[in-house]
């Protein structure tokens, strides 16, 4: 379970942030996450632990055109998500720092 103080940090970034667990993996749903590029607002799903050989992952409701590489599609928490090949954002960081590490791709 994600600590309350940690979730408050994420609420400052994305007011609707919500913890979700599926198959023993913790995710944080980030509705209307603001990207530093087009399309601007997009739903995100942050995985704060290892997933599919990656230390952490950020899944998006749609791929971002011209950004990231090797996009793949995943079914998680009853929804289709897209992610790109971006590794080595450590799981020992605070979730807000993990999110920032993944968002660097889009600057």
What keywords describe this structure?
107 residues, alpha+beta, four-stranded antiparallel sheet, 18% helix, 34% strand
Mean pLDDT figure: 95
Main sheet makeup: 4 strands, antiparallel
Strand order of the largest sheet: 1-2-3-4
Overall shape: globular
User: Given the structure, what is the number of helices?
Assistant: 2
Poorly predicted ranges (pLDDT <50, ≥5 residues)? none
Determine the N-to-C terminus distance. 30 Å
Task: Tell me the number of strands.
Answer: 6
Describe, in plain words, how this protein is organized in 3D.
The protein is α+β, with helices and mostly antiparallel strands and 107 residues long. It has a domain of 35 residues. It is 18% helix and 34% strand. It contains two helices and six strands, in the order H-E-E-E-E-E-E-H. It has a four-stranded antiparallel beta sheet. A hairpin with a 2-residue loop joins strand 1 and strand 2. The chain is globular, with a radius of gyration of 13 Å. It starts with a helix and ends with a helix. The mean pLDDT is 95.
List the helices and strands and how they pair.
Blueprint: H1 4-13, E1 18-22, E2 25-34, E3 41-47, E4 57-60, E5 72-76, E6 79-83, H2 95-103
Antiparallel strand pairs: 1-2, 2-3, 3-4, 5-6
What would you say about this model in short?
The chain is α+β, with helices and mostly antiparallel strands. The chain is 18% helix and 34% strand.
